[in-house]
# Entry
Amino acid sequence: MIKEFYETTGDVSEAAAKHAMDVLQRSIDARGSATWVLAGGSSPMGAYKLIANQFADRLDWSKVNVLVGDERYVPLDHPDSNWGQISAALFHQSIDSVKKLTPAPMHGLDDMAADYVEQVAKLPRSAHGAPHFDLVWLGVGEDGHTLSLFPGRDIRSSAAEVIAIRDSPKPPPERITLSLQALAGAANVVVFATGAGKRNALAAAIRDGELPIAVVSSFASEHGAEVRWLFDASASEGMSR
Ligand code: 6PG
# Structure
């Protein structure tokens, strides 16, 4: 795992945005397409906006598949929808030509998860059969969760690539999320480690490796991903470097 330390959240946004442009371009050059898993929550919003405002003309976005790593069971135009929030920040002008896997809040949570499994199944696959994700962005909760994989739950044993979550401690309670197994073909993972509210969880994750963000990071790394945690000063205060 690579740790990068920045002063402000804005610096982290800029580093993440530039890294994304590099990774996606290299993937397009190598294979003709790229797949990017977007993170929900507020932490990556600055980076989405920066890409939309300043980097939109850097890529042929029609060659990029995008999906969100987890989604709340709400309509896409609901203020709580990760997809809705990301769309509003990122999908402008040429970026709107990306190929979108859209979570569909259908007749029930299990239908939504099953539909997303089918959409994910159509993505390019790695040699070992997992979806090949060129880049995965992850946020971190104050309790150390990432995606909608929460502490104190068995996040290791699901074989399905998308799972339904019914009692999320972070509202709203019903969600779908990529599973740990879905990340077995990730090539690059970026963790947004920003804000004083995340400091304790990040320190605990690094110390004992048990919190979901640590488990997901280690799993991806063990499966060959380059994993970068991007810290701002308030999240990394007191942390050894
Ligand atoms: C969600 C997210 C979740 C998020 C973290 C951090 O749907 O809630 O995907 O995993 O990334 O909770 O959220 P913030 O960036 O808003 O702190």
